[in-house]
TrEMBL record, chains A, B:
GO molecular function, one term: 2-dehydro-3-deoxygalactonokinase activity
Protein name: 2-keto-3-deoxy-galactonokinase
Keywords associated with the record: Kinase, Transferase
SUPFAM superfamilies on file: Actin-like ATPase domain
Origin organism lineage: Bacteria, Pseudomonadati, Pseudomonadota, Gammaproteobacteria, Oceanospirillales
Organism (species): Halomonas chromatireducens
One BP term from GO: D-galactonate catabolic process
């Protein structure tokens, strides 16, 4: 655990299904120290959250004095620490704090707020997000009247339509999970390696797959098996690692392409929020289809979103 | 192991990735006895096949005399007992035996033939089958000049175009594997139960999903997550087992519908070859789209295909 010299003004936490990340910040929003653990929502019962949190942030707390902790993500799920019920869209992202809840605590030094997720209950368009809304809030913290399309690639990729700083509609695609299942758990695992989109051959395989699946999305289940067949039949493929890389690039293109094929309207520039590698992959897919994009780093976004919530809490009288 | 009184004329074997099924037949093609084991290709090295076969059929052999054993499926794969190289389409199904190979044997009572699979090497349409070609041969054994579209639903569903008893083109869809991964290994496993298409509500959910995915195949990754969201939001769903069943029926409809959306031309009547439950499911999907189908039992088909090969072997001089 790194040491630090200044007492934090507040602590930001992004608590997901499988891990948590925490940051101690000063009152200018500068990160003093960061920490993490693998104790995500899936491995915790409600009574274990406070201890799991203190394992990461305990050293940052001074002996006396109250510290605000603002948490987004799965810790606020029904099966988490305490439920912060979904807010239904349309929702202004600066209003997220209105749905925040405080879990029961033993340690008198902590004041914890769990931020809510968003839900969409239009018939035929049921959807939920929990964690990503705070990254979107980070975008709005930087551009208060943002309107446009934002994409957060990942296990469950989110596409959100924003109007003047409010989320009006969103869509989740199981793209990352689908890729992982196919590449690691299906018959394709014998053929799929690790791709490298800096390699021109991988890039071409990726972009070709994007175009093909956009033209006939229903071919997805066939083109999946085609990866295995091409490998078995040595079809126009290099040997060794290069083969696994080429097939991985094609599988990635097919999977991301299927996601893009199902979206209503890709008007740009599209704001990609996430880690550098995955955002670059999506930017390449969008560029292949003639769409512009720009990037916002995922950690920067979630911190800005948590800070927006912290400022609202401390200014609203909710945090006396 | 059931007993039998008549000495078999020959033995038919369908040897897949995860199991083998064997039948002893008399010279009228009547099944005298059947057996099976879980020792499929994935669990065997080449030197173990003969012993695994004898574990199932050993009791059927008389002390003296040679018995023909005709085997289709993965035992003839490169990573199987001995490779029976794929025959490239177009292939007349009565000619399968021309690609049969004999593996090395220790037991002098056995004469074993491994039938080949089929491959398709047209650029962009690489595909393979191994085992299903013998079921298609069974269709042709019954209708020698069969022309039309045949579908063999399963883990890797096969669609074959036949003309006058020859396979001219085929397509594999990873539909069954995709369903299993999503229903049992993904985040959806928390929501998906077992459906029952005899239940009108399940049938409606299944057929609605078929129509929806046919109209916008690219929505597949979104509608997948929609199943989880609908469950979390209690969206127009019953409780308990009925909920899991309803969501399973929708997932099945989305998955089979995506397969159907990618096929070029569904001209009927389509011949479904497989087990009763899965064929009935496909028949329902096809009917929802206005396509006629008819059924051929999968075991009947594979036995008829193996018998066609056996007769060709014994009449051709290949089996002196």
């Amino acid at each position: 655990m790194p040491t630090h010299t200044r007492r934090p003004s507040w602590i930001a936490v992004d608590w997901g299904s499988s891990n948590l990340r925490a940051w101690a910040l000063d009152n200018q929003g500068e990160v003093l120290v960061r920490g993490s653990s693998e104790r995500g929502m899936l491995s915790l019962s409600p009574g274990e959250y406070e201890h799991a949190l203190l394992e990461v942030i305990g050293d940052w707390l001074s002996g006396t004095g109250l510290v605000d902790v603002v948490i987004c993500g799965m810790a606020g799920a029904r099966q988490g620490w305490r439920e912060a019920a979904y807010l239904a869209v349309p929702t202004r992202l600066e209003d997220l704090v209105q749905g925040a809840v405080s879990p029961p605590l033993s340690d008198p030094r902590l004041r914890v707020r769990l931020l809510p997720g968003l839900c969409q209950t239009a018939p035929g368009n049921f959807d939920v997000m929990r964690g990503e809304e705070t990254q979107l809030a980070g975008l709005v913290a930087r551009e208060p009247l943002f309107s446009g399309l934002a994409c957060l690639p990942g296990t469950h990729a989110k596409w959100a339509r924003l109007e003047n700083g409010a989320v009006t509609h969103f869509t989740t695609c199981m793209t990352g999970e689908l890729y992982r299942l196919l590449a690691r758990e299906s018959v394709l695992r014998q053929s799929i390696g690790e791709d490298d989109l800096a390699d021109p051959a991988c890039r071409e395989a990726f972009c070709t797959a994007i175009h093909e699946i956009l033209s006939v999305p229903g071919r997805f289940p066939t083109w999946l098996f085609g990866l295995r067949a091409a490998d078995l039949l040595d079809a126009d493929l290099p040997t060794g690692q290069a083969r696994g890389a080429r097939l991985a690039a094609r599988l990635s293109g097919l999977t991301i392409g299927l996601e893009l094929a199902g979206l209503d309207k890709l008007d740009g520039p599209i704001t990609l929020i996430g880690n550098a590698a995955l955002s670059a992959r999506y930017a390449m897919a969008l560029e292949a289809l003639g769409h512009e994009s720009r990037r916002l780093d995922g950690e920067t976004a979630v911190l800005a979103g948590l800070e927006l919530a912290y400022r609202a809490l401390t200014n609203s009288g909710k945090s006396p």
